[in-house]
Amino acid sequence: MKYRRLTREQLEELHREFINFLAAQSITAEEWDRIKKEQPETAEQEVDVFSDLIWEGVLQKVDYLENISQRQMNLFHLTGKEMRLIGIRVLNPDIDLTTQEGFGWFKKHFMTDMVEIMTAAKAYSEDRNRDKFELIEKGAVITKGELYRWFDDILRDGML
Q1: Residue 83's closest CA among 138, 43, 42?
Q2: Cα(94)–Cα(91) distance, rounded to whole angstroms?
Q3: φ and ψ at residue 138, rounded to 5 degrees
Q4: What is the DSSP letter of 132?
């Protein structure tokens, strides 16, 4: 397995897709029930293959990720050639960016010396989707990139 097995909830959400996946392999509902009972390791392998296919499809489309913790924000833009990062660290130990109040404080003070902002870029390894997946496994979530683009515009305009 290249990534990780989808959770039970994810598999339930993708029930129709899984049925189509089995049908593409000429596995009927009755056959699937038999495989689950008589060959549980084969059933597990089928779920693993399906999970990898789903992850590949999702990761192929991911352009932005965010990983926000108490005092740090890592905003990623995943371009065709590299991973770009805008890293933000709040130096005020009383602020928690994961709360509404903390993020409100941040919006008022991001241009002060209480906030550090840095940028970086890194080439992908041989497996671009694996690189994206590792960021997700470390806590990043897929976004539409509004926060990244907002900061990128500010940085490009030289406001910081």
Answers
A1: 138
A2: 9
A3: -85, 5
A4: H
Average pLDDT of 53-72?
96
At 160 the pLDDT is: 56
Tokens of 11: 């598999």
Cβ-based burial of 90 (10 A; exposed 0-12, middle 13-18, buried ≥19): buried
Contacts 24+ apart (CB under 8 A), 92-99: 95/70, 95/71, 96/70, 96/71, 97/68, 97/69, 97/70, 97/71, 97/72, 97/73, 98/68, 98/69, 98/70
In the chain, where are the structural domains located? 8-61, 64-156
- The answer to whether the CB of 108 falls within 8 A of the CB of 30 is no
- Which tokens go with 114? 């209480």
Whole-number Å distance between alpha carbons of 38 and 33: 9
The predicted-structure confidence for 93-147, as pLDDT tens digits, reads as follows 999 999 999 999 998 998 899 999 999 999 999 999 999 999 999 999 999 999 9
**Total residue length of the chain:** 160
3 state SS of 143: strand
Look over the chain and give the mean of its residue pLDDT values, rounded to a whole number. 93
